[in-house]
Automatic annotation (TrEMBL):
GO terms for molecular function: hydrolase activity, acting on carbon-nitrogen (but not peptide) bonds. Gene3D superfamilies: Metal-dependent hydrolases, Urease, subunit C, domain 1. Residues 76-213 form the Amidohydrolase domain. This is Amidohydrolase 3 domain-containing protein. It comes from marine metagenome.
């Protein structure tokens, strides 16, 4: 029974990967007029409304009808009774980049099995600085999920000034800015940082603000593993506020990753973190 349900879930997710997120490599595998009918699923449309029972008819990778489709026929019929039919989930902090670039793993079935159809790679300020080259290697075998690449701050800093524990000079900062712009021009979705790690933790907030500003004209986002999860340096609350302020100064959406209180010294800080984010 478990194996059967897993097979159904994978089939559903492959369909919804095509329907809701439209990744080109996978959609090429679907005949233009091929039809798939998902019956009796609990449809959650992503709007925030409660789920409702309905059938979903897909033709050529596009949703054609949703509702009571009792008389509809299709090339493939999936019985989704008792299962949820949703848009694919988005993982905004994924370390799956190297795996997806590995022959035989690019279809990402473990990701699909969890409902993930889009992943943001190069998190924590780590990963390749050549966004174009990474993109080429990712699509060589045909991707099974959507991939949003981030420009990794830590890798940029390392390539410009090694792991020196100091502020960047104006010339070094300009080089990093140009690399951010190049990455965005090559298709990146934003800037990631890991100020918890070397060499990102050597960068002052002002450096991150200046680099994040380069992302704004492209409609990009800022994503950060913040500087302190406990009481190691600036403190948990201050590190959360730093990330929020970088996004505010740059005028871009911000993703705060690894929101946690590490150790008894900061237990109970969860509500305070949520309050800072909501403000």
């Amino acid at each position: 029974m478990i194996a059967k349900q897993s097979e159904i879930v994978l089939s559903l997710l492959r369909c919804l990967l095509l329907v809701f997120l439209g990744i080109s490599n996978v959609s090429q595998l679907v005949a233009q007029d091929r039809t798939i009918l998902i019956r009796n699923g609990r449809v959650m449309d992503g709007s925030g409304n409660p789920w409702f029972t309905a059938d979903v008819l897909i033709r050529g990778g596009q949703i054609e009808a949703v509702g009571n489709l009792e008389d509809a026929a299709a090339d493939e019929v999936i019985d989704a009774t008792g299962l949820y039919v949703t848009p694919g989930f988005i993982d905004t902090h994924s370390h799956s980049g190297p795996g997806l670039a590995t022959p035989g793993l690019s279809h990402g079935e473990p990701l699909l099995a969890m409902g993930l159809t889009t992943v943001f790679v190069n998190p924590d300020g780590g990963g390749p600085t050549d966004i174009s080259q990474q993109g080429t290697s990712l699509v060589e075998d045909g991707l099974g999920v959507n991939v949003a690449q981030m420009v990794p701050h830590g890798s940029l800093r390392r390539s410009v000034m090694g792991e020196e524990e100091r502020e960047a000079t104006p010339a070094e900062l300009e080089r990093m800015k140009r690399m951010v712009v190049a990455g965005m021009e090559e298709g990146a979705w934003g800037l990631s940082s890991g100020t918890y790690y070397v060499p990102g933790n050597y960068a002052p907030p002002e450096e991150l603000e200046e680099l994040a500003k380069e992302v704004a004209p492209y409609g990009g986002v800022y994503q950060s593993h913040h500087r302190d999860e406990s009481t190691y340096s600036v403190g948990l609350i201050a590190s959360v506020e730093e990330v929020i302020n970088v996004g505010r100064v740059a005028g871009i959406p911000t993703i705060l990753t690894h929101v946690k209180a590490l150790g008894p010294e900061v237990w109970g800080y969860g509500p305070a973190i949520v309050q800072r984010v909501e403000q």
